[in-house]
Structure formats: C-alpha cells, structure tokens
C-alpha cells in the first residue's frame, strides 16, 4: 500500500506542475459557496481546473496522508477530455489524468 500512496502523491505533484505549466493554476480559491457544490466536479460553480486544484488535489492528499482507502474507480480523464476537447495545449494534462485513473483502477 505504501507504494500506491507514493505513486499517487507523485501523480498529484505532477498534476499541480502541469496545471501551472498550462496556466490553469489559480492564485485565489473559489468562494465558499462554490466550494460547497454537490454537483459532480462542482461543474455548476467552478471551472474543472479549479475543482482539480481546490477539491481533488487536497482531498486526495488528505487520503494519502491519513493512509485512508483511495478511490478504485476514478474517471477524471473523460471529464478533462470533454472540458478541454480540441485544446491541444492540454494534451499532456489529459494524458497524465488517464495515467492517474489507471493507477487507481489497478490497485
């Protein structure tokens, strides 16, 4: 299990770096209202990249830090493909999310 946590932690670091390289990293957090969304990917209150930065990365980091069970059926890449359809600048980011989905589904 330790190796899985380490691998996922590395994926989160790469995800953050890639978001920054793509200029998708925000300097300020969304509103409390936006963060309280119950919609998938908080799609009704924030952009997908904001969800990755302010909800997904912190929640996954917490699970890893507390050595809690990780999701086994994650499918973030299809949402990324939908949101960034035709945006070739984000191909590496989407590819990374596919890899991350795959790591979690193989545990």
Automatic annotation (TrEMBL):
SUPFAM superfamilies the UniProt entry points to: YqcC-like
Pfam family, one: DUF446
Domain YqcC-like: 8-102
PANTHER family, per database record: CYTOPLASMIC PROTEIN (PTHR39586:SF1), CYTOPLASMIC PROTEIN-RELATED (PTHR39586)
Protein name: YqcC-like domain-containing protein
Organism: Shewanella saliphila
